[in-house]
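Posted in: Protein Modeling Q&A

I'm a second-year student putting together a small comparison for a lab meeting, and my supervisor asked me to include a predicted structure for 2-haloacrylate reductase. I've never done this before, so apologies if this is the wrong subforum. The sequence is pasted below exactly as I got it from our records. If anyone can share the structure token output, I'd also love a short note on what stands out.
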Amino acid sequence: MTTDAITARTVVFHELGDPEVLTIENLDLPALGPKEVLIRIEALGLNRAEALFRAGTYYYLPTLPGSRLGYESSGVIEAVGDDVTEYAVGDKVSTGPNIEMSSAGVYAERVVLPVESVVPRPEGLDAVTGAATWLTYSTAYGGMIETGGLRPGDHVLITAASSGVGIAALQTAARIGAIPIAVTRTGEKSRYLLDNGAAHVIASADTDVVAEIRRVTDGVGAQVIFDAVGGPGLAELSTAAAHNGTVVVYGWLDQRPMAMPMNWPLRILGYANMELSVTADGRRRINHWIASGIRDGVFHPHVGAVFDGLDSIRDAHRLMESSTHTGKIVVKL
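Accepted answer (user: helix_wrangler)
Welcome! Here is the predicted structure, written out as tokens:
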């Protein structure tokens, strides 16, 4: 199969805004380059970054009008470029790394991508689960282990713990022998978080998080704080870190300015997934980490909700913005 004269139903938006700006249009696929593959998309994994991008509050802005959307998907390769040796027609793959969403967003029935944006789908994962795996576990691995230096026996404080990345972080920390402490807004998700690897659960709405961290760590504090929120609360949260501890900020759910914490010595690092996934060696390490965790049964990607078809994309985004779900939201094509 070639991409000549192939069109694909594709989600685009022409202005910034809420989920109502998302539309579906038939777009022509570009000609297949020598190091590119054509993928028939089977499922899309939604990420908070896509809601921010759509609203114009992500770290880079969409190119309008006609911006595409989406990082993560799973599907089957239907055609390969002349110089592609990594994949063959029929291979089951996922997408996620090195995607500029305006031009190459994967919310579509078919996409053409460079091989650097494609990873093998781990053995045993169906399409829906495959779309809920790569970005969450690669963020947890890259942020906590490669950047944060998390080690066995370390306490790690994980905010937004019921999110897709939060669940992956709990399982990742538990797998290396660290002690994950989950922070969530209320206690109603405690059993779910404990079942996914949390050693302790703290409900921030009715508990002094810093005091509770000090209590469960016998006054030492957490060696690593893995934070998705940022904002002015980061300064207080950082006081829960151990002496010479590390704070890794990987998300900006609270986009107000961050205040500088004063409990030095303390390392504060920002983590962006593209720093690791941009290189072939980084992708190799990520892929082996995820595949081995799936294989030994420690990693259980959690899908919190499944929507049917591209026409449900607005509803899926509304649920994501409500923050009432757990785990990952997936749209099945």
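A couple of things worth pointing out for your meeting: The chain has two domains: 7-134+288-332, 148-270. The two ends are 20 Å apart (CA to CA).
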